[in-house]
Description:
Helix content is 36%, strand content 11%. By secondary structure, the protein is of the alpha+beta class. The relative contact order is 0.12.
Amino acid sequence: MLVKDVTTVQMKFANGCAIFCKSGVTLIPAPLVLPPPSFLFFPSFSAFLLTGLEAFSSSPQVLSSLDMLAVGKILLMETLEPCQPNEMPVAMLYDTSQNDDININSACLKNLQDKTMNNPLNVRMVELTVCLI
Length: 133
């Protein structure tokens, strides 16, 4: 839309408002309806475990992956099983901010495997302390 078009639309809107105000119509405000208190609060968790990563919940690799993949994104949390009030929920996280949803749990697990499963052995090197079972 061009600036000229925006100005024209604004002028037409202002003229319409002026005509309406001069018409002498009295507006009666509708009563304000407040939603019930339960509507204003959503269930939330201050802490939860990522499904498949329960044992690695405090791992620096998982936490940095989670920070990189989830902070500032629109996320969907799916709890797989109901939990008791004294238990920490286990959940799947999905990034829904893009066209394709991204499974945050899988991405964190992949990053963890990429970091911890690096093979320290070099090509054409003899390792005498390797034992295969």
